[in-house]
């Protein structure tokens, strides 16, 4: 039986001889070092990076060079080594280097590879094979880097979403101010900005759609927002002053069908739990006012909130309606009560009080200045009547 011929041509993979592949493998460390040296020379910002981060880049580059040889040996294992290197890079590195800068590093490393590797080829055919392989591999490495950054961004987005939900939940539950403020600051919220809480139905059952809709509306009016979908309820914390309510009206479009209630605008996020509490109470009570605007202010729903047992609404009615009218004197209080009892007929009220109708008009204007409610308006008349009733009940119970 004849001996096998061991002096024949070496086997090839991807058109390269085994000897050339070994040379490439031995040169991987030198290529990585040359690539990092070129980065330090041609990229000023790279030289300013801390030493440990430059060392991390060197390790990734070495993994990329070794991955190139593995890719040449077996295309099925294409970029596993290099992809793992990107995935395992220190978190500080991805924060320090942008995707644009990373692509620049990859491009520079590929240029070094193009200069150095063809010289290791055994012949011109292998040289062409290497050049083509470097170009293809460089493209795949760039895609691997982009995928790595995209995965990191997705993870950060998921973490930010969870943190945002914790902030909004803390505001709704009235958690300690310090924890809410620190988490909100991590999300970029200005601690000095005023805040208004809006609650209503989400526009979709798909959370990403809800987030996109709310953030798009907020961006159009130049406001920062925090939001959370809590079951069938959407809670939005809107930054900035309320003004004439125009911003609130534009944000209402981001909610689904049904009522939307806005709490009072508070000076800082530390007080947002008050706005949230009033908004939640208003949302429970708004069904009692069929003609409520959208959004309805929680302060305009005080009569309905009192009927649901809201102690804060009762206190506000006493402070805003009953106490100012009583402190203004018996004549003003009797005029408002008589006007309400007369069904809003000015002449009937004037006869009951034995005064001129102009006197009634003057007193009603004075009452409107004190309470912000004019008895001639049907809705304001309902608030005034409820406020006076609540005031009498509170006094009878010794609460006032």
UniProtKB/TrEMBL annotation:
Domain of life per record: Bacteria
Occurrences of domain CdaR GGDEF-like (ranges): 174-284
Annotated Pfam families: GGDEF_2 (PF17853), HTH_30 (PF13556)
Segments passing through the bilayer: none
Sequence ranges assigned to domain PucR C-terminal helix-turn-helix in this UniProt record: 332-388
Similarity-based family: Belongs to the CdaR family.
Name the UniProt record assigns to this protein: PucR family transcriptional regulator
Organism of this sequence: Amycolatopsis antarctica
């Amino acid at each position: 039986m004849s001996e096998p011929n061991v002096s024949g041509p070496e086997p090839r993979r991807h058109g390269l001889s085994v000897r050339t592949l070994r040379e490439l493998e031995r040169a991987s460390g030198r290529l990585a070092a040359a690539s990092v040296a070129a980065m330090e020379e041609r990229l000023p910002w790279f030289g300013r990076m801390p030493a440990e981060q430059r060392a991390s880049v060197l390790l990734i580059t070495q993994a990329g060079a070794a991955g190139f040889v593995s890719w040449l040996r077996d295309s099925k294992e294409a970029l596993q080594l290099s992809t793992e290197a990107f995935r395992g890079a220190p978190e500080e590195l991805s924060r320090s280097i942008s995707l644009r800068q990373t692509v620049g590093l990859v491009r520079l490393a590929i240029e070094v590879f193009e200069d150095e590797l063809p010289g290791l080829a055994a012949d011109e055919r292998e040289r062409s094979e290497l050049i083509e392989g470097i170009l293809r591999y460089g493209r795949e490495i760039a895609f691997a880097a982009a995928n790595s950054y995209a995965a990191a961004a997705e993870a950060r987005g998921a973490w930010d979403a969870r943190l945002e939900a914790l902030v909004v939940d803390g505001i709704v539950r009235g958690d300690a101010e310090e924890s809410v403020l620190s988490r909100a600051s991590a999300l970029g919220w200005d601690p000095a900005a005023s805040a208004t809480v809006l609650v209503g139905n989400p526009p979709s059952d798909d959370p990403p759609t809800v987030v996109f809709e709310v953030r798009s509306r907020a961006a159009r009016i130049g406001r920062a927002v925090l939001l959370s979908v809590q079951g069938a309820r959407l809670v939005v914390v809107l930054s900035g002053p309320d003004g004439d309510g125009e911003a609130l009206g534009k944000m209402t479009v981001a909610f689904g069908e049904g009522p939307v209630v806005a709490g009072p605008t508070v000076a800082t996020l530390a007080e947002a739990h008050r706005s949230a509490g009033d908004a939640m109470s208003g949302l429970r009570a708004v069904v009692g006012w069929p003609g409520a605007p959208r959004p309805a202010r929680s302060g305009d729903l005080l009569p309905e909130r009192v009927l649901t047992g809201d102690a804060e609404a009762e206190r506000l009615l006493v402070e805003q309606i009953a106490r100012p009218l009583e402190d203004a004197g018996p004549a003003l209080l009797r005029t408002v009560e008589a006007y309400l009892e007369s069904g809003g007929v000015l002449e009937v009220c004037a006869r009951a009080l034995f005064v001129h109708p102009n006197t009634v008009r003057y007193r009603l204007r004075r009452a409107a200045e004190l309470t912000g409610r004019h008895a001639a308006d049907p809705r304001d008349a309902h608030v005034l009547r409820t406020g006076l009733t609540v005031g009498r009940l509170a006094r009878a119970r010794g609460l006032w």
